[in-house]
Amino acid sequence: MLRLHADCDRDRQTYFILLYIINYIIFLFLLNILFVNLIDFRMAQTMIFAIEEINTNESLLPNVSIGYRIYDTCGSRLSSMSATMALMNGQDDTTLIMYCLFVLNKKDYPSFFRTIASDYHQSRALAHIVKHFGWFWVGAVNSDNDYGNNGMAIFLKTAQEEGICVEYSVKFHRTEPEKLQKVVETIKKGTAKVIVAFLSQVEMGNLFDQLSDKNIKNFQMIGVEAWITSESLMIPNSFHVLGGSLGFAVRKIDIEGFADYVTKEFWHTAFPCLQREGNSSQYGLNCSRYQDLLGLKNYNDDVTEQRYSNNVYKAVYAVAYSLHSLLQCTKKGGCEKSLTILPQQVKSQDLNGSIHFKPVGYYDASLPPDQRFVLNTENIIWAGGQLEPRSVCSESCPPGTRKAAQKGRPVCCYDCIPCAEGEISNETDSNNCKQCPGEYWSNAEKDKCVLKAIEFLSFTENMGIVLVFFSLFGVGITALVAILFYSKKDTPIVKANNSELSFLLLFSLTLCFLCSLTFIGRPTEWSCMLRHTAFGITFVLCISCVLVKTIVVLMAFKATLPVSNVMKWFGPAQQRLSVLAFTLIQVLICVLWLTISPPFSYKNMKYYHEKIILECSLGSIIGFSAVLGYIGLLAVLCFILAFLARTLPDNFNEAKFITFSMLIFCAVWITFIPAYVSSPGKFTVAVEIFAILASSFGLLFCIFGPKCYIILFKPEQNTNMLSIFHRIS
Q: Is-contact 512 542, C-beta < 8 A?
């Protein structure tokens, strides 16, 4: 409540001061709301200031003065465009200078001159700043007008080109509170932590109020020049919503002398008493009532920051310098006033300048693509804390995985699928997994190709050790039998079985046990040839000895006459030659095999994908079949002859044991074939070694086991066989 005292001069003075302030506030309110925007009014003042400054400049346009006619500002979109179109339709000789963001086709309007960067560059710059920080999942809000719709359309197109996904793109107008509520709900339900707000200052204020009321915070706001530097939005209560916002602003430049010009015009207009026209006593009388207000005469902090004013200032000077060039002005001679100047000529004389955005970086569309965007993040205070925010639909897929798009969602939403066996991805967010080369396989993490493990039957593994043990065990048993037979060489049981063939058979069995060792170890070219040829020759030598022994038994007991001389034609010499002949045939087969297509070391990568089976390829299947076939032929022949001799006297039953040994031998090698074909990797070699050892042990125990039993445990039977020995002899 205001108290006034008529008898007090000071109170009367205070009354007038307060009354003036109230009237001035009402004036500003009417000026700003009902008639013209105060900021736009400041733009007009900037233009007038620049024109007056140019007209007082004797070197720029010495004898030419620039005038002006103000139609409207950008405060009212409808009235601005109406005045602009009326101007351009009515007068073709006028140059149009605009500091606001209307879009005109320069081909249709060649005299159109823009003094502020196009929203095309700002929209693209917004996409670049989002991509720079790796925010590939963002929300978008724009004003539902030409400014917001055009700017957002460019941003969305650029975002798509840069691989940025937009979760939602919504818009509203300041006169549509229902749409604003839907926008707020969309932001609240969304998962994007970064919001690109292509809004005017008024609509950004409306959105901020709603976000603040509903306590929706910790979003990283990306703004445009319309509101990013607005001091009216930057209040203490807005920090939880707008704190850490990033955006692009027009470069801030102070126009020298403008602040003093504005304040001087205000005081001279609002306080006519300051114009000293008349005596000093009249001046003091008129201004005494404003004594308290006059103390604020030099205060100019209320002049708004001159970001857009600078564009107006530069625009007027651009026209002046164009005229200076076209009118051929000189400081002494002045300007040629008789020249006719077209509006297009004024525009063509101007130069496009780059716009820098501060304080943490800039975007300059005139530079090469890799130099347009520069950003220094050290001084940025991020929304919601000190850590740089993350805004992605799906977290990055680590090496070893690939991205698989989620059905019905943007490309930025994906699942991370581990690479298949033998495939890798060695970079983050890989779209596809790469197949490893032939001899390589993926590691456990699927991020690197490593050499495949090479597998072969080695001496150091358990299976190899077991097989080596049984092989050497067979050699040892054979050696003990040979020693026993040698120590009892004069006994009937040793002499009766042709001791030479017995010792040759024991020697061949020793070679059979030892040849199994050639199948163990890393296959090489020489070891592959040795193992198969040694196997074939030693087994033929062994079977040849058994076959000759069987023939000897048959000849000894099937002679029809006691005085027959059959044994003379198949004596020891013939027996040795028979063994040699049977063996030489196998040697010849092996030589042909090694000559035509020998076995060789082979890396088998077909059976296992994750490892290489190092094995011996047979080279020629026919050669290997011939070796096995010849051994089988001798074994079958030996089995048949031994079977025919099964009715020999019980006190000399070697033929029966040969029959059993051949039966075991044939059974082992018949079952070997399917087992050999079906066994994988090193187990193929193990099956072959097992067949060699099993058949060798069968021959050793079936043929020599009973004899060793008689020699060691039944020595009386060894002497009773003397008559049989003489008969065979």
A: yes
Residue of 235 and 31 predicted with greater confidence: 235
CA-CA distance, 692 to 589, in Å (whole number)?
20
Binned at pLDDT 50, 70 and 90, residue 350 comes out as very low
Residue pair 60/329 in contact (Cβ under 8 Å)? The answer is yes
Kindly tell me the burial class for residue 56, based on how many C-beta atoms sit within 10 Å of its own C-beta (0-12, 13-18, 19 or more): exposed
CA-based end-to-end distance of the chain: 156
* pLDDT range class, residue 19, cuts 50, 70, 90: very low
**Cα of 497 vs its chain's centroid, Å:** 78
Rounded CA-CA distance 340/18 in Å is 56
pLDDT above 70 (res 269): no
Number of C-beta neighbours around residue 639 at 10 A: 21
pLDDT tens sequence across 398-415: 999 999 988 888 888 889
Question: What's the one-letter identity of residue 185?
Answer: E
Cα dihedral 309→311→316→321 (10° resolution): 140
**3-state SS assignment for residue 213:** helix
**529 Cβ contact list (under 8 Å, min separation 6):** 594, 598, 599
Q: How many beta carbons lie within 10 A of that of residue 511, not counting itself?
A: 18
Using DSSP's 3-state secondary structure scheme, residue 115 falls into coil
Q: Tell me the C-alpha distance between 87 and 317, whole Å.
A: 22
User: Which two structure tokens, joined as six digits, stand for 92?
Assistant: 């073709």
Beta pairing partners, 97: 113
Among the residue ranges 274-278, 685-689, 709-713, the one predicted with the least confidence is 274-278
Q: Is 441 helix (H, G, I), strand (E, B) or coil?
A: strand
The residue among 96, 107, 54 whose CA lies nearest residue 72 is: 96
Inter-residue contact 271 to 59 (CB < 8 Å): no
Assigned token pair, 419 = 């690479």
Element counts in the chain: helices (H) and strands (E): 24, 18
Burial call 173-205: b when 16+ CB within 10 Å, e when fewer: beeeeeebeebbeebeebebbbbbbbbbbebbb
How far, in Å, CA of 717 to CA of 376, rounded? 108
Residue of 136 and 495 predicted with greater confidence: 136
Average of per-residue pLDDT values in the chain: 76
Mean pLDDT of 666-695: 82
Closest Cα partner for 423 from 396, 399, 391, 394?
399
**Between 283 and 385, whose confidence is greater?**
385
Question: Helix, strand or coil for residue 195?
Answer: strand
Q: Would you say 446 and 419 are in contact if contact means Cβ atoms under 8 Å apart?
A: yes
- The more confident residue out of 669 and 442 is 442
Nearest residue to 410 (alpha-carbon basis) of 121, 166, 85, 683? 166
Which of 114-128, 192-206, 363-377 is least confident?
363-377
Q: For residues 160 and 169, what is the distance between their CA atoms, to the nearest angstrom?
A: 13
pLDDT band of residue 39 (cuts 50, 70, 90) is low
Six-digit token string for 332:
């002494």
Distance CA 159, CA 126 (A): 9
Confidence at residue 468, expressed as pLDDT on a 0 to 100 scale: 92
DSSP 8-state symbol, 705? H
